[in-house]
Amino acid sequence: MEANLHEKPRHISKCLELAILLEASADKPGNVNRTASFKSTRYEHFLASAVAIASSFEHAAERGVLVSRGEIHVSAVGIGRVIKNSMVNVNAWQHGGNTLLGTAILLSPIAVAAGMTHANKRIFEVSKLRKNVKLVVESTTPEDAVNVYEAIRTANPGGLGKVSELDINDPDSKKRILEDRISLFQIFQKSSKYDAICSEWINNYPITFKVAYPFLMEQIERTDNLNVAIIHTFLKVLAVYPDSLIARKTSLEKALEISSKAKEILELGGFETLKGRENLRELDRELRRTGNSLNPGTTADIIAAALALAILNGYRP
User: Fold this and answer.
1) CATH of the domain at 132
2) How buried is 221 (Cβ within 10 angstroms: 0-12 exposed, 13-18 middle, 19+ buried)?
3) pLDDT band at residue 99 under the 50/70/90 scheme
């Protein structure tokens, strides 16, 4: 029997919270993890953020349940407010700066979509989940866009840069969005050329659903080691898709160079061979030499989304 209005959203939020905790805990190169930190951002900041954001995911899932019952239209979900509130909550519970903005942007539609999707024994069929994610993101409103602009200002991420149209730091941008009725989906269409998170949104999460998730499940089954599976999936995504955060902070050429090294590590056997581990440690050192300017943060966000799919579909560590 379908879980009630509160039980199902609580379950969904726990799944997404666990996904963030597992992603943050894996020994991925260039990211904060259990044994590595940046100057002002440490592992405990991610733990606190994962707990703080869970209530926003629960609310998002509740809105999805209401959509499934026909009580509200999908455009009335308020995904922008969900993302904004999640950043407010994260900032209230830790002092490590921006930890989960990209993850929140990716996971919030998944939370709504899971609320919309019928679950059989709390297992959410991934193909149906993806169809509902598409409905959620394509039904966003100008109000959602304004709220996400405010969420980004709240999170204050690095590497934003400046754009010629509807710049986040231009005070007139929000006014124009509302006057011209520009939806969040349309804003992300404009940003998708240089931001992989936005590209995932407008293309129905192709990296998450078609690359990261199936590769993660294959690695979990093959290695029987979640840490290794997450590291290998991280390397796989990084090898195929240059990290857009690195590209914005440095250059596309540098992002491509790092992708090439990730591919080489996988070809050497990754974490499972001595040579692979040596090259992995060298890549990790390289990514940390200049603080966090070479942090593959976008890749980490996608891995969190892949883990969310796995857990929603019944995987338990």
Assistant:
1) 1.10.4200.10
2) exposed
3) very high
Which of helix, strand or coil describes residue 105?
A: helix
* pLDDT tens-digit series, residues 15-40: 999 999 999 999 999 999 999 999 89
Q: What share of the chain is helix, strand, coil (3-state, %, to 5)?
A: 70, 0, 30
Residue 231 lies in a domain: yes
Q: Give the structural domain span for 130.
A: 7-312
- Is the residue at 2 inside a domain? no
Other Cβ atoms less than 10 A from the Cβ of 246: the count is: 27
Of 137, 138, 111, nearest to 20 by C-alpha is: 111
Six token digits for residue 199: 């590209």
Backbone angles phi, psi at 147, to 5 degrees: -65, -35
Vertex 102: Cα angle to 57 and 114 (nearest 5): 35
Token output for 250: 């440095």
| CA dist., res. 280 & res. 214, Å (int) | 22
Give phi and psi for 194, each to the nearest 5.
-125, 5
- 3 band by pLDDT with thresholds 50, 70 and 90: very low
